């Protein structure tokens, strides 16, 4: 948890620089935000890996197969990547591109969840005898 004050402190400093850059050089402001986000993601990768390990261990203890866990993890990853893309494109002032990225992310999450939804419907039909 010691990384959180570091990220917040650097984030505040980058925000101050970005406010100045946005007026003078908008393209550099977007690149600064992108660079900051990339560095934070690299810092947090070990934490993300430990969360995935914990969820995998929890699923193994609960006898939940990877068929159910993998789509959840993939959907979470797709949501984070989509959110990152949406925020960067909004920061650049590209609302239309941001909307397309958001729509694409929602469709990808739907496609990821489709086999899980099919299994649930198939199980319900089995219970109902249909």
Fraction of residues in β-strands = under 5%
Total count of helical runs of at least 4 residues: 4
Taken from the alpha-carbon principal axes, the silhouette is elongated
Low-confidence stretches: none
Number of strands: 0
How many domains in all?
2
Q: Which H/E pattern describes the elements? A: HHHH
What's the helical proportion of residues? over 70%
Structural class from helices and strands?
mainly alpha
Radius of gyration: 20 Å
Distance between the termini: 51 Å
Largest sheet: none
**What is the mean predicted local confidence, pLDDT?**
86
How would you sum up this structure, described in words?
- The protein has 130 residues and is mainly α.
- The protein is 91% helix and 0% strand.
- The chain has four helices and no strands.
- It starts with a helix and ends with a helix.
- 3% of the residues are buried.
Topology, element by element:
Blueprint: H1 3-24, H2 26-61, H3 66-91, H4 95-128
Question: Top keywords for this entry?
Answer:
4 helices; elongated; mainly alpha; 130 residues
Brief sketch in words of this structure:
This protein has 130 residues and is mainly α. It has helices at 3-24, 26-61, 66-91, 95-128.
């Amino acid at each position: 948890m010691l990384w959180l004050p570091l990220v917040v402190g650097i984030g505040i400093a980058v925000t101050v620089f970005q406010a100045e850059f946005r007026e003078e050089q908008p393209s550099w402001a977007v690149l600064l935000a992108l660079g900051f986000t990339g560095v934070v993601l690299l810092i947090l990768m070990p934490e993300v890996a430990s969360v995935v390990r914990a969820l995998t261990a929890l699923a193994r203890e609960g006898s939940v197969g990877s068929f159910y866990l993998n789509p959840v993890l993939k959907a979470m990853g797709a949501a984070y990547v989509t959110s990152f893309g949406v925020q960067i494109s909004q920061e650049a002032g590209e609302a239309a591109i941001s909307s397309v990225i958001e729509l694409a992310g929602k469709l990808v999450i739907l496609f990821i969840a489709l086999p899980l939804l099919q299994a649930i419907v198939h199980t319900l039909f089995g219970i109902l005898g249909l």
